[in-house]
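Retro notes
What went well: the complex prediction finally ran end to end.
Inputs used:
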Amino acid sequence: MDVPDQVSEALTTCRLRDVLDRVGDKWSVLIMALLGDGPRRYSDLRRSIDGISQRMLTLTLRSLERDGLVIRTVTPTTPPRVDYELTPVGHTLSKEVSSLIRWSERHREYIGMSRRSYDAR
Amino acid sequence: MDVPDQVSEALTTCRLRDVLDRVGDKWSVLIMALLGDGPRRYSDLRRSIDGISQRMLTLTLRSLERDGLVIRTVTPTTPPRVDYELTPVGHTLSKEVSSLIRWSERHREYIGMSRRSYDAR
DNA sequence: CTGCATCCTCTTGGATACTG
DNA sequence: CAGTATCCAAGAGGATGCAG
């Protein structure tokens, strides 16, 4: 059994739904991975994540902060500077996410082939 | 460094986007976890996953099949019987997903508290 | 620089009805 | 039983403009 009974039951009753939504979020995964290397500034994150809008970056960071995964530090200089870093719990999630990303890297080729062969039918 | 340079670069150029979308998908995660325990019938999955619509179950399974993560087996009896099971690669992803679900279990409490305390402000 | 507010579009996904 | 097809509502998310 890969999944314990307790978890299976949790799946069916959707108690995990809200947490999995966090993990499954498009941008959260990328942000968690990047912050795994250390603190980053807002503008730094924005440049590092290709295709993210300012709105989504802010919303995602707020949501990560709300979940206790990220800490937001404001330095009131002019112009202001804001740094984001993982909390200890955030780091443990970042580890999981990194593992998932490595899986993606390892199997990207396979998935691409599967898709092409499926679509060929 | 939790994330290798290669992956960081992949993140910024979004080459991983399509694979992460798969992983991040709401229903895919649950289905992968359930199938980790062994093959399941369509109706079985439907009953096991609370809140999923017939439409989404079918769409998600098709998409998993397309990615080479799930195998669909039709037994042409009356009524027809369709079984779904993980491919070898699907099993490796299921392991990752199970790990993520266990993380969720471990930190559900913490996240709940963080949210309540954040919202209290 | 770091954001918030608004508008507006497009996708996601639920409900329902119908088929082999 | 295991889908497919259609319709439709809700929400995600981009673009833009403004503010501290």
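What we learned: Residues 53, 55-56, 59, 78-80 of chain B lie near DNA strand C (CB under 10 Å from a C1').
What to try next: split runs per interface for comparison.
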